[in-house]
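FORM 12-B: Structure-to-Sequence Request
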């Protein structure tokens, strides 16, 4: 097929081929569950908190046909699609599959910017001479992700990040959509203004009062009209995006600033003991994610939300960065001591920040003869937790649990 990135006049390379890709895994959590359990394939699958106050984290496309969407209350999802398979999230497994896919993307091009667990931008300009056009590379990526990781990816191909992301959204499910250079404004014109980044309900109402309903109508307005109606920052941004003016580059390194977990309870917790049991589970979950990311942390933050929706956060920094759960559990318990659990606790959360990569010599240093007894104990605990991680990776997240939670291992939603 003809190569659109070749200059027909002189054969020199001309940057006229769309080369920014947005790769998005379709219904990621639900798709991983269907991949791992063949009995779920072709069935509506809903992943999320299974308690009365749980919310939908992901819904398969079979479930979406019944109106089920992410962030929907789980009770409403059950009423909308009672025949669905309801599954508790397995975040370690999702992280494992995400790393698999991101490794595939990085094998194609070095410029990969991971946005979240299931999506990334690529700049493939440097790969086109060897691998073909942006569209050809996108097709090859979709084929490899399916063959090697067993997952379906939708891909948008365009000249800017904004338009590539929009194209992948419009191509779902299981699609590939490219916007050829020179056609961007024409492509955008008939789309609703809600497709522009930054247009939420309030902005949508303002534009509606101005009789502006499509991106083309935004593009036709003077920039001064938009900034007067929406404010300088938002007005300028929408004016630029409506013309596909998005100079942002694909940035390979995405720095994770914190790792956290939280739980909303079906019934408010009213005792310190009940809150402590949930704290154990949260710290165990978040430190497991920390170790899988090969990171250590120094600061623990406790988030508590009462039954009246009042939310408070408290934080404490430990002297030395670590990934050992007992260190952060003791810290989180101290923070919980300052909270009144008898008021009724609707939500608890734990996040770890001030992250840094694990030092290769960490285990040796902690077990040296001249370290303190406390450090040696922490070192032994670290070795145990890594062994537990290995068992969980092989047999599932619930194969080993903290002793205080052994009676809860069969509870729905855990």
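FORM 12-B RESPONSE
SEQUENCE OUT:
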């Amino acid at each position: 097929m003809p190569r659109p990135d070749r200059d027909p006049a002189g054969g020199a390379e001309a940057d006229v081929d769309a080369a920014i890709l947005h790769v998005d895994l379709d219904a990621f959590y639900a798709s991983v569950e269907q991949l791992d359990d063949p009995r779920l394939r072709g069935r509506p699958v809903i992943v999320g908190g299974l308690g009365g106050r749980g919310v939908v984290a992901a819904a398969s496309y079979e479930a979406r046909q019944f109106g089920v969407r992410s962030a929907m209350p789980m009770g409403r999802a059950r009423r909308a699609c009672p025949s669905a398979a309801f599954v508790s999230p397995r975040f370690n497994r999702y992280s494992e599959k995400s790393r698999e896919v991101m490794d595939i993307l990085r094998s194609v091009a070095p410029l990969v910017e991971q946005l979240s667990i299931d999506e990334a931008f690529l700049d493939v300009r440097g790969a086109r001479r060897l691998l073909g056009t942006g569209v050809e590379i996108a097709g090859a990526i979709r084929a490899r992700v399916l063959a090697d990781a067993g997952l379906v990816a939708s891909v948008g191909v365009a000249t800017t990040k904004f338009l590539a992301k929009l194209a992948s959204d419009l191509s779902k499910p299981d699609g590939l959509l490219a916007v050829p250079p020179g056609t961007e404004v024409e492509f955008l014109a008939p789309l609703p203004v809600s497709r522009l980044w930054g247009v939420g309900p309030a902005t949508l109402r303002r534009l509606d009062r101005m009789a502006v309903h499509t991106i083309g109508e935004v593009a036709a307005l003077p920039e001064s009209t938009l900034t007067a109606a929406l404010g300088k920052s938002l007005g300028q941004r929408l004016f630029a995006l409506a013309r596909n003016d998005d100079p942002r580059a694909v940035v390979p390194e995405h720095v994770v600033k914190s790792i956290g977990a939280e739980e909303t309870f079906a019934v408010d917790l009213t005792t310190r003991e009940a809150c402590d049991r949930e704290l154990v589970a949260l710290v165990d979950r978040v430190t497991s994610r920390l170790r899988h990311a090969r990171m250590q942390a120094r600061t623990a933050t406790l988030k508590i939300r009462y039954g009246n929706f009042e939310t408070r956060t408290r934080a404490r920094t430990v002297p030395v960065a670590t990934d050992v759960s007992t260190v952060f559990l003791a810290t989180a318990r101290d923070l919980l001591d300052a909270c009144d659990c008898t008021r009724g606790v609707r939500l608890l959360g734990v996040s770890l920040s001030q992250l840094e990569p694990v030092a290769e010599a960490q285990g040796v240093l902690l077990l040296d003869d001249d370290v303190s007894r406390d450090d040696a104990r922490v070192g032994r605990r670290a070795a145990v937790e890594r062994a537990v991680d290995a068992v969980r990776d092989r047999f599932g997240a619930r194969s080993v649990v903290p002793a205080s939670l052994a009676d809860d291992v069969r509870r729905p939603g855990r």
